[in-house]
Structures are given as structure tokens and as C-alpha cells.
Structures
1.
Amino acid sequence: MPIRAVVWNENIHEQTNDIVRSIYPTGIHNAIADALNTDDAIEATTATLEEPDHGLTEDRLRQTDVLLWWGHKDHGAVSDEVVERVARRVWEGMGLIVLHSGHFSKPFKRLMGTPCALKWREAGERERLWVINPRHEIAKGLDDHFVLEHEEMYGEQFSVPEPLETVFISWFAGGEVFRSGMTWRRGAGNIFYFRPGHETYPTYHDVNVQTVLRNAVNWAYNPQAALTAIHDAPNVPVEQALEPIEERGEKLHQAGEAGYK
Amino acid sequence: MPIRAVVWNENIHEQTNDIVRSIYPTGIHNAIADALNTDDAIEATTATLEEPDHGLTEDRLRQTDVLLWWGHKDHGAVSDEVVERVARRVWEGMGLIVLHSGHFSKPFKRLMGTPCALKWREAGERERLWVINPRHEIAKGLDDHFVLEHEEMYGEQFSVPEPLETVFISWFAGGEVFRSGMTWRRGAGNIFYFRPGHETYPTYHDVNVQTVLRNAVNWAYNPQAALTAIHDAPNVPVEQALEPIEERGEKLHQAGEAGYK
Amino acid sequence: MPIRAVVWNENIHEQTNDIVRSIYPTGIHNAIADALNTDDAIEATTATLEEPDHGLTEDRLRQTDVLLWWGHKDHGAVSDEVVERVARRVWEGMGLIVLHSGHFSKPFKRLMGTPCALKWREAGERERLWVINPRHEIAKGLDDHFVLEHEEMYGEQFSVPEPLETVFISWFAGGEVFRSGMTWRRGAGNIFYFRPGHETYPTYHDVNVQTVLRNAVNWAYNPQAALTAIHDAPNVPVEQALEPIEERGEKLHQAGEAGYK
Amino acid sequence: MPIRAVVWNENIHEQTNDIVRSIYPTGIHNAIADALNTDDAIEATTATLEEPDHGLTEDRLRQTDVLLWWGHKDHGAVSDEVVERVARRVWEGMGLIVLHSGHFSKPFKRLMGTPCALKWREAGERERLWVINPRHEIAKGLDDHFVLEHEEMYGEQFSVPEPLETVFISWFAGGEVFRSGMTWRRGAGNIFYFRPGHETYPTYHDVNVQTVLRNAVNWAYNPQAALTAIHDAPNVPVEQALEPIEERGEKLHQAGEAGYK
């Protein structure tokens, strides 16, 4: 069975901005999904902000292996309930790939626990992405670097937690650098942030970018069953202790009582 | 100038439970603050849930170098506004030491971005804490292990992000293990989680536990100025680029415009 | 094509000690290889100390995807040349799984850069391995813990570098704990250390241990081409710079000259 | 008592190359030691390759808190015995700061366990070092970046283990990036690699570089007693087990016997 990827897109600028629409006539989400679907191991569909539940019902998420997230103009419009739903699924093992301006999306900030802020400049300048972790699954098939001739600049400090591994670092013509590809694990879920993707440039039509996205979906996919137990804080009764112990000392809780949350 | 530590305590069980009151007649917060104040480098005060703003006004936090957090029975009573205030100060450089049942406190969950769940058993069993990172500042003055004869058991999986470093791992008589001391950096702030401290046992009167707490305050303290810029995502105008670049391509934003959040 | 695993064994105690021989009549290496070969994705063969080049010629290593290493009595007998050969292949992408007393093997110490020391006791005591990273590929199919009724104790501090991820922590009946499963990446190679496996107990016949070993081989396998460029420190001539620059200032090196090593 | 820093220098180019001599008339080691000694908390002395034991006797190292290492032309001339001595002291708690071309020095490669290779170009191009971890002790007093107008380029991949934390990332005019400041802990010792410092440019006279070096010495210093036990792998006899256990099963070792190494 292929990996079930869902490409989520805010899908606002495609409807309100002629430039963006001309580059992505069917929306960024469909451009990305099309690129993913060239990989037989992936079956990508899409979801957008305007759908009920933003297209991310409990049911849909339960059947999602990897979620990709693109948002920019209206992060605040995403309901907190859906954000929490996404976070819970990540902890259970759903992969999450956060794209470009999604650094400020609610699900990403929720899972990082930091501001996720950065410097930026929209000048169509040259970005060169260096592979600093060659043979990482996400860098498969890439040369030691690749170039995007026109991109928005993002500059450090990027206020995220120290990653598990850094895969890409970007060089910008205007003088900045940026950790453009980083991985984290949160619960059973693999998270990847990938920097490029400003909507006024044809970044998601770039062959190297598409390679990274396909690799990332394969990397983020956790084939094991959902770790639904991660939400519990079970009491282990004394009589079920793995080693024989006797209850001693004073107690707050009665047997079988739930803990405080 | 000494390190300004604030020991925050929910302070509920001390008022409602005779056992807890008999062990900590002036409250867990005062027992801990007294232990910290034996170190000339530390000046510890206290704050509790029942105070206005839970004792953590903007002003107070601005003058706090390291915050210690003990809560258990009513995490939900802590206002979201104060939680956000604490998180922001941590990102700016305030140290945070989370104690025992504080694993489920709102500020800790906010900063970790994970469930922070675990197994537990209240049986007064023996806990042996092993120093797995000797000569870490937090383990200063300790032997290779120390024992708490009566403690609540916490068992893995403890669903937190992979730490920067692990300092302690606990062995429990009933057969479980637990990563009892872990460090993270979030923004400019150092975070330490320390497991022991169930309120029905005299844990905070233990000399080794007190040593760990004093060490942890010294370790968590960041003497540099608050990193208030961490909340910003500044635009860098083309004409101020560090390397001369020309604006190219299409744009969404006007010069000087704030980014979307 | 299946993953080509090679199980390396010192193979001394099997020939000199009746107990060990009775448990592993064909040697620990064959017991492990047999367990691996029940996985269709793996094709395991063996190599031993006594063979020419210890069975690890350049050619053999070039055709090895994952190497497993068991040694105990005579680490010093392994030639430094073979150690260097193994290290180089790991950097190029060969997986390495180090077993039990292999913590003191030359290849492991070479790749860790630390003493890799620990406490130990040979008393056939109970070991309980806790999965602290559920849904990690190496823990696939395991419950939240498993028990080995008779094992040698290894206790912390285990002086290795902070790992990429910790998968298992062991509880011992005698009161110690140990990080029993840890991962590292060195160059393009994935490394896993797995604690159990004392030769006087039937550990490698244990079904959970065998599951871990099969999982670990699948995890450690890097399907990408060998990163042979990792040994080079190439000079990038000014005229081939990616951005046009002019040579300035004073120089030590002539164009095309190799760097100092 | 101040931190006892020793600045080690190969000290070859200062004697053989007019350019280098003109920039560092008393040697790179003295330039650095002078810069360190402006900090009252540091007492810096020097050692060079040509001295007996390269100036690093057992006695000298025992009295060294932090060692700085600059070498380039003749790494191979450093005796393996001294390398091992340095590594052992790092594991015991001595700080180590490796400078520029020291990436290929024997002690650094010994402690990293990887090739430590990189790309390079000697063209006097502009390097801009970005602080990606503001408020890290090593970045104290710096702005968000600083520039070295003429430096040798080092480019990724830099084949070192994933660091504890990354402090600096460099941008180069010719189009490359490099992780210019990284930290690791090995045993009880703190290690910092700092990229700049090509001998034909006046890098060590730069005020920002000097600030980093002073900060790094203060950061790397471990005030606790030497962890000499890190070299041992002690047997814990059954009768001294912390929890009462009975010896069971078969044994290889006699009581009190040393383990195999």
C-alpha cells in the first residue's frame, strides 16, 4: 500500500493574486501533490483551509501517513481544534513536512514550543542549498548543492529547537545563511522543515525541490501502528508491579484513581 | 548580584492534606527556597497559584533569572496568559526548572510541544538516581548515584523531545527506569526537568536533592541580557542588504510591510 | 536485492569454553546470522578473527551493507589496518551494529572517540529492557519492555558521545541502569549499540533480541551509493567559484595544490 | 584562581614564511595568548611542536584547564603518545578549542571519530559569521553577525559528528556555507571548533574573533575535579551489589578478575 500523503494548502494567494495564480493555476497544493504522485510509493491528495475542518477531519487524519503544510497569509484562520488534532496525530506517528512560510503555522509552533521566527527579504535573490548531510534519505539523488535563482531570503536566527539532524544550509546572495532542512522527532512522528517555496516564484516546479519533497515523504513515513497510548499516563498498581514490592509510606491517591492532569 | 530564583508552587496539598502539611509546614516552595538560599550565589523567593497573576506578573518575571515550577493537583487553574508569559521569558533567556509532577504543567507542555506523559505508581518504593553524565554542572558534588528510599515511581516512555543532554537515570524497586534529569535549550533559555519530589515524602529535605537544585539554578542561569528580539521576524529591506543585490521577480509585500503571522 | 549483512565474531570462547560451546555450538556468529536470515530482506554471512584479514578484506567490506560486531576476549588481536578499513566503510555508508562486549572493540572506540567504559558484574541477574522510543524502527514489534532472565550487568556511566537517539534503557536486579540501545551517525553510516549478549547465557536465542537485531539491520542499511568523497578535502579553485570572486590577499598554496593533512 | 589555558601552535609558518611572520611576529600562539590574557579570569601560556613532548607533558596537561590547538602544515609530526595524552585529559574534563586548520589535527580526529574533511579555497574572500545561537556563552557580546574581510574559504560537508549545539554558520563570498562554531562533550570535556584563522590573514587580531576565543575558554572550562575514573571499567562484585542478588548461571570470570579490554 502506498504512503498516504495529504498536501495541505491555505490556498488564498492563488485566488487573490494574479502572479501566484499564473505560476500555480491549480494551487500550490496540486502542484506538490502532482510531484509526489510521480513516485509509485506515494499516493498524494490535498486539503485546503476553506474546506470544512480545513479538510482535516479526525477520519481523514487517521488515514494520513504524512501531512505537508503550506500556509502564509492567514495562519490565524486555522482552528485551534484542528491544530491540536494534527499535533496528536504527529505524536502517534504521522509524519509532518512543513514548508517555507509554514514556519509560522500553528501546528509547527505548537510542536516546536518556540517562536520559529526568522529574518526575511522578498527580492528574488539567488539561494544555494548545500547538502551538509549527504546520504541522508532526504538528500537522495541530489548533488552537493542546488540553486534556486529566485527566492525569498530567510535569515538566521531561526528560533527552533536544536534539530535531530540538519540536512541543508542555504546561502543567499544578499549575505545571509539559513538552516533550510532540519529534522525532529516528536513522539512517534517525524517532522521535517524545508525552507524554499515563496509563492511568487516557481519553486515547486523545480526538479530538485520535487526530489526533496518525495524523499521527505518517504523518510517521514512511519509504517508502524499509531501510538495512541502516547496520550495516556497510566497508573501501574502495586500488585501489578513487575518486581514484587510492598506499598510503603503515605499516599495521595486511591488504587485505580486517575492522575491529575 | 546573586541569581534571582523564584520557586513557584501550586500550594494546594499543603493546605488540604495533613501528611503533606506535616512534611512541608511552610509549603514545598519555602522548603526549596530555603535550600537554595544556603548558596550565596542565589537569592530565592517564592510565588504561588493563589496570588494575583499567580505571583508571576510581567514585572516579576522580568526580574527573574531562574523559575522553578512545582504543580500537581490543578495544572488547569494556571491561566493561559501567565503560561504564555513564562514561555516568552524562557525564550528570552530565563532558566526554567520543572519539578516532578510539573511534567504535566502547562508551561512545560507548552515549551516541549509533546504530551510529556509517563507511567506512575504511588507506593513509596526505592528510587536510585544514577549520574550518567558525571562532571555535568548539575551533578556537581554528587557520588555516582544516590538513593531516595521512598518515592513515587515514574516509568518510561516519558514523551518529551530528545534532550540536549541526559544527566540522571532512575532505577525503581518495582522494575521501571526513568530519565530523571534532562536538559533542553529553547531560544535563549535553559530548561531542566528533575523527576523526584512527590509531596507525601520528604524528598526536598534530602541533601542530594538540594544539591541538584542549587546546581541546576546555577546551570540554568543565563547572565546575558534578555533576547527580546526573539519575538520578532524583521524584514530586511533590499537597500540594507549586507551584499549588494538588486530586487528581481514578483513581489507580494510592499517595502517595510510586516510579514504575516 | 537483499541487505548484505556480515556477522563478525571473535569466535574464541566457543572454541575454549564448554559452556559457551554448548549454548552456541556453531558459534555466536552463526546463531545471529541464522536469526537474521529468517528475514527475507536480509542475506547474512559471517566472518571471524581467525580468517585472513579477519574475514574483512577491502573487497568483502565493499560488498557489505551492514556489519555486526561481537568480540570480548581479545580485542587487541584485531589488526589496526582492518579497524581503519571498517571505519572508512562506515563513513562511506556501511551500517555498524556493535554487540555487548564489543563496546570495547577497536572499531567502536575508533568511531566514538571516547573510552566506551562501563561497570559490569557477571551474576546471571535479571535485565529488563525498556523501550523509551516506541515506534523507532529498531523497536518494531516489541512490547513496552522485555526481560532477559540471566544476563551480565552493565552499569552507567557508559562513556560514549551523546547519541542521536536512545531506544532502550535497561533495569538490572542488582540496582543498576544502562542505556542499552543507542544510535549515532558517523559520516554516511548508521551505528547502533545493543547491550545484551553475554556468551554464557542464551541471549541470542531470545526471540525479542532476534527481533531487535533484524530491525537494527534494516534500520542501519543505507541504500544509497558509497560516499567515497568523504575522505577528500578538495581545493575549489578561484576560477571555479560558484559566485564570481577575485583572488585577494596573501597565499600559502599554489593553484591545484593539495592541502596539508 | 584563573582558568589555566594553554595555546598550542605548530609554529612552522611563522618561521618559514615572511607573510605569516609579518602578521604574527611572535607566533600565532602568542597573539592568541595575549588576547586571552586581557581577561582576568584567564591565565594563558603557550606550547609548540618543537618543544620536548611538544610542550605537553603529563604534568603540564594535568595543570591545564583548557587547551587551544592551532596546526596546519605538519599534523603528522605530532606524536601519537601526546595525542592519546590529550584525548585522555579531555575525557577527564580538560576543555579543548580547535582552531581553523586544526580540523585535521590528530587530537581532533581522534576525539571526533570521523574524517573531519571539508572543501577549501585560499582567495582572501569575505566571510560573514552568523550567530545562530544568540545568548550562547560563546557568542556573548557579539552582534547578530560579524565579518572577516579576508579569509580562506571552508565549505560543507564538514564531516564531523552532529554537534551538541551549533553557534556560528559562515557565509562566503564565493558561494559556500560552513558550520563555523560547534560544540561537543566527550567524557567530562567540552570541545569547541572555531573555523577562522588562516595564517596569511590577521584574523587573530580581529576584535570579534578575540571575543569568541575568550568566551570559548570560559565556556569550555570545567571547574570540577578530573574524572580519572573514566578510564576504568570496574567489576562490581555480587556481594557488593546495591540490591541483594544471588549469583546464578554460568560464569567466565573469577571474582575480582579484570575484564577484557
2.
Amino acid sequence: MNALAQTPGSVEAEVREIGRRARAAAERLALASSDAKRQGLAAAAETLRADMGRIIEANRRDMEAAGELSAPMRDRLLLDEKRVRGMADGVAIVADLPDPVGEVTARWTRPNGLVIERVRVPLGVIGIIYESRPNVTADAASLCIKAGNAAILRGGSESFHSSAAILASFRRGLAAAGLPEDAAQSIPTRDRAAVGAMLRLTDFIDVIVPRGGKGLIARVIEESRIPVLKHLDGNCHVYVHAAADLATARAVVMNAKMRRTSVCGAAESLLCDRAVAETHLKPILADLIAAGCEIRGDAETRQLEPRARPATEEDWTTEYLDAILAVRVVDGLEQAIDHVNRLGSHHTDSILTEDEAAAQKFLAEVDSAIVLHNASTQFADGGEFGFGAEIGISTGKLHARGPVGAAELTSYKYAVHGTGQVRP
Amino acid sequence: MNALAQTPGSVEAEVREIGRRARAAAERLALASSDAKRQGLAAAAETLRADMGRIIEANRRDMEAAGELSAPMRDRLLLDEKRVRGMADGVAIVADLPDPVGEVTARWTRPNGLVIERVRVPLGVIGIIYESRPNVTADAASLCIKAGNAAILRGGSESFHSSAAILASFRRGLAAAGLPEDAAQSIPTRDRAAVGAMLRLTDFIDVIVPRGGKGLIARVIEESRIPVLKHLDGNCHVYVHAAADLATARAVVMNAKMRRTSVCGAAESLLCDRAVAETHLKPILADLIAAGCEIRGDAETRQLEPRARPATEEDWTTEYLDAILAVRVVDGLEQAIDHVNRLGSHHTDSILTEDEAAAQKFLAEVDSAIVLHNASTQFADGGEFGFGAEIGISTGKLHARGPVGAAELTSYKYAVHGTGQVRP
């Protein structure tokens, strides 16, 4: 299809038709048995493995056109045998997850004898808008389908051929197992107007999940007429409290910052109580510098560690996704909580302390999706929570917060069992 | 304040300032103890009782200006001693409800020893936009505060003075008990631009709850940049299946339609299997007509009951909120489910049958917030569900579906308890 030849009206009509087919597929999928969904996803994992050559060939076309992209972007785009196998394995793992649909999450009996059950049901149709990493195509579609939803995928134009090849293979698997192919569809045009059309398709899409950089997410939030499960930046903090154990603090700060610097759960700011700046912060910073991390500190930090560069106001709100850490010495717990709530991004924050009361206060008062005590912020991950897989980490408070797994991609209904009750 | 003298910019600035204060109040309220919230609401119930004279006097001013309103509108607007007392009692009931905040709704331990807890937390700031009934001011504010949220209220201009008097009294109670007054604020202008400004206040309002007619809700859904807990129309169905018990069917249909015709859970359509049209539908329709209900039927219904008027296509999708019922004879379960899903409003629908398998299929396949077996649709009510109070019935699938009580006005966070774990 030649995107340039399309008029805005025809893009809209095309997106609408995709939405209509997704709704029909979602209605069938909502009634599919757990076994049928498991078999469909297992079959999709198989076809992805079988189609490896075709997928890598399609990816080569994207890579050829991606000459002008940065090295990290090119790396995210690249598919090799290992990555395709990893993607197929991911789909197979989702296939074997427990089915959330049909789960009775509450049941009670009213004085009049009515038995009320709250039962998990699928959300319906989920629109996923993502950038560069083509494996999102299979990851996101499989999680949506596990929860009985249809997915409409809109990948970045740089991964156009890769995503199309992955989707074709995935759909072939679904169809082979008797699931509706249209449970996973993509928008088959690079026309940017298609994103706008998706974001206005209120009658056919129930929720939009954007995955990508700040620019993409800001555009989606601004334009969408459909509820958005948003994943904003992860400006995560580690706070070394006066009662922190030194060995724990050294190990956790190093892991939170340096294990992988590019993930949303990576620590971007470190706060340390003045009382333990000399004993704890000094060796922690020496460790980090030795590991190749740049330190941007406030005045007290720089006195303690002369190799630190000065931190500006901007540093306290920046998600570096790199080997850089903003460091501030604080008076104590109150100031640390205030700093995190005012300057953080309400994603994931950790306190390191042996003082249980201080930990409780931090966990209660820090207004973030994930708050940790004596553990690394890099545990902010659906897999680490035991969800098997996640479609992202929600920083919003509506519907889902924190890792969004299959259960978070469901709604519920009330089933009320009576024996002829009428209301007085 | 003279609304006419305000420029659009000043309305926006005023709404923004209200939002800023609501956010500050919400931050304090999120940390308030269960006792403090209970005492604050109990005090507000007291001041409402003490200020009865002032509230009724304010209502008189609204009633005088409401000469041109219809009789039902005037009735909804009117406050007398009994209604003010009922409103205060409602606040006292909410005061004594269990506090949802802090409830640990799930707890599990990971293989690495991390203990993960999902803990209920408040949503933040809730914007409520409502029409005519001034008691919503106290009802909605008390439920929001119970769940630790601040409320920004925007009532209809016809209830301007009544709502202001109720709110002033309510705030006096909160303040007397040491809760932040700004946990309940209203937009103190009749300027319609204020609603638009509220709907764009994404940084200070977390969720919008519209309560009112279709026009209001449609405007809110169209204009809001903030997530909406929507309550669309209740086109509720009762389906008399071939295996329905006759006495149950007569009692439930009568109650579902005629107990109160103006509530969203009132039945608006009746479906009956052809197999029992003669035995069941005929006496049911005779009962209804005797009770003053107008019947609009399809051809088969009209053959059975000559007093029925012909139903048009529009009747199948209309929420009458009146003593009118659309009636159709169907082939059986499949056709009934298809009718409800295609023409209903996904609110509340009931099957009457002694056949357990048929009931299970209906409950599973009808895509509505509330599905009932052998019970009246008029049970669609937070009180009847045991929630103590509700802010509305959500027909959306995101975040909350069905009756929205205090628990549905919360979000959650994950509190993770470690002993120094780092991620491998």
C-alpha cells in the first residue's frame, strides 16, 4: 500500500474497518476457552520459530533503510536468530500463564439471599502504539490475547517490514489453532494520520497503551479520546537513610544504577542522610565512579567527592537512562520524601534502612507506583513481580498502576444469582 | 462573584487555583487516619443538620428562580426538612463505612524473598459535574473524602444557592474536625466556561465523574482531557426464558419495570421466548397494563395483547425512565443475548429461568456491568450491593464497572519489602 497516495479520509476509513474487525474478533475471543487461547498462543510461538528466516529477511530491509538512525536505535531495531527465538519463547511463556478471564475475584451474599460475584472479563480492544523495537508486536499481542482482548498494533515506521513479518507469522499461528486472526492486526500504512485516527476510534478501541519515548507518549495523551494506560518516565530514587546498613546500601545502589542503565527502573537520583554521608555516601560514590558512573552532586556531595560535577535543577528531574547519577545530601526522612514526591516521576523509589518505622513512613508517604524497602529499583518489572510478562509500567492511577500484566488487561462484571428477589 | 464580569482567562485561573488547593488538600487527606476521616464526616453530618434552616432558605432562592423548569425538575431541586435530614444521614452512613485506604488487597512472596503487597491508596482529586439535585453535593463529597480524595464539585446553575449553602456547611464540619476544608470545593461561578476549564485541568484533577442527563455526559466525554468514569444510559432488559417460573416472572418483571420508573436500573425492554409467550407473557402484560404501564410491542406481542402499541426500531434503544415498556418475542436464548448485546446499553440485564445452564450462558455472554439471574434489575444500586453508598454506576470497562463505591474511588501502590535484594 502506498501511504502517499492515500487521502486522510481513506486512512480514517481503513483504520475504522480494522477497528470493526477487531471488535468482532474481541467478541469471539471473550468467549474462547482458556485452552483455546493457550493453544493459539503456543501455535503462534511455533510459527514465529518456523518463520525465523522470513522475519530476519524483513528486518534486513528495515535495517538497510535505517542508516541514519543512532547506534542504540539501530540496536533496538535489529533482529537476529537469538532475538527471534527469545520473542517466540516469550509468546510461549504467555501461552502458559494462568488465564485471568472468568476468575471470581470476590463473592458475597446479601441479607436478601442474592449472591453477588465479581468476575474478570476482557477489556475488549487494546490499541498499542510503539516505537522501534519490533518484538513488541509479538509481546503485546500475546498478552492482550491471553486476557481475551483483540490488539491493534501501530509500530514505528522504522520497523515497518519487521513488524509486518512478525504479525503475519503470529496470525498464521492463531488461525491454525482456530482463534480469530483479527485478534491481532496492525495498521498497514506508515501514514502518521493513522495514529490520529486510532486515537479517535472511541467506539472500537477501549484503551490505548503507548510504548516509547516521551514525545510519543505526550502526543498520545494529548490527542487520545480513548483512555490511555500511560507509562511516563522513570525518574527513580534510592534513599540511603541514616540507619542504612552499609553493605546493603553499597550493593543496592550499585545494582539500582548500573545493572542496566537503559531500563525505566534504573535509579536516576540518590539521596543520602547527612548523618551517614561520610560513612556511607563516600564509599558508594567511589564504587560508582570506579564502575564508570558520572556523578552530578549538590555542594555537600561535591565536598565529599571532588570528582562529582555540579548538579543543576534539571538534574533532579532527568531520566538519564545512562551511567549518570544525580546525588543530594538531605537532612533526613521528611526532606527525602518531599524531594521524591516533588521532583520524582511517581514510578519506583526505594529506601535503604534498618529502621522499620522509617521504612513504613517512606512506603506510606511516597506517592509512587512501586515503593521498596531494602531492595533495588531494578525490580520494577512485571516478570520480577511474578506476572510472567508485562505490557508496560503504568504511572497513572486509574485502572492499573505499576506493572501491567494479563490481569491488568481485564475489566470485571457483576454476576448476581437470585431466587426471584424483587427490590422492596 | 459576578460571572458576567469574568473574562475566560480569569475563569481558567480561578479553576486552576481551586485545583491547586484541591491537590494540596488531597495530599494531606491521603495520610489522614481512618478515625480522622470518620470524625470529619460525622462532624459534617452534624453541621448539615444544624444548618438546615440556612440550607432550606438558600434552596428557596433557587426554587424562586426555577419557575420555568418542568415539574419533575422542580421536584428534584426542592429541599425540605426531610430531604436535608436524609442528606445528613447519608453523610453519617458514609462516615461509618469501612475505610478502603491502606487495605492490602494482595500479598505474595517471590522466590528471592521479596514480599510484594498491593495496597489501596486514594486516587487524588475527583471532579464531579452534576445537574439539578443539590444533595449530590454532600453525597459525592463524602464518598470522595471517605476514600481519601479531594472533591471539586460543579453543580447545575439551577441549584447554585442550595449547593453553595450545603458545601459551606459541609466544609465547616470538616474544618471543625481538623480535616482540610479544601477537600470539598465548588466552582463558585455559573459561567459555563468553568466546566471546560475543569475538563482540561489534567495536572490537578485525576478523574471526572459526570452525573446527569445524556447531554451533560456526552459533553463531558467529548471535551474531557481527564479520564471519565462514565455513567451512560440504563437500557435494562428482563428476559423471560422458556424455563422461567411463572410466578417469579410476573413478580420480577413488575418490580423491574414499575417499582420506580425513573431509576437507571428500571427495565426498559422485555424479551420473552415464543414457547412461553401464551402462558407467561400474556399475564405479565395484563399485570403491567393494569398497573398503568404502556406496552410497545413487536407484531407477535401485539397479537397476544391488542392493547399494545407498535414498537419502532427506536424503542429497542430507548431509556424511557417512565411507565413504558418495549416488548419483543424471541426464538430463544441466542436471539435474546444477541438483542441485549446489540441494542442494550451494557448496564444491567436479567434472565428469568429455572434452567441453570441457560442462566450461566446468559450471565457469561451478556456484556453488561451487572447481569442477574432470577432477580430484578432494580437491584442495580451500590446500596443494594452492600457498598453503603455509590457515586454512580459505571458503564465503562476501565477502572470501575457497575456501582462505584468508596473502594472504586481508590487506586493502589505496590509496597515491596526486601532484605537487601539486588536484581541479577
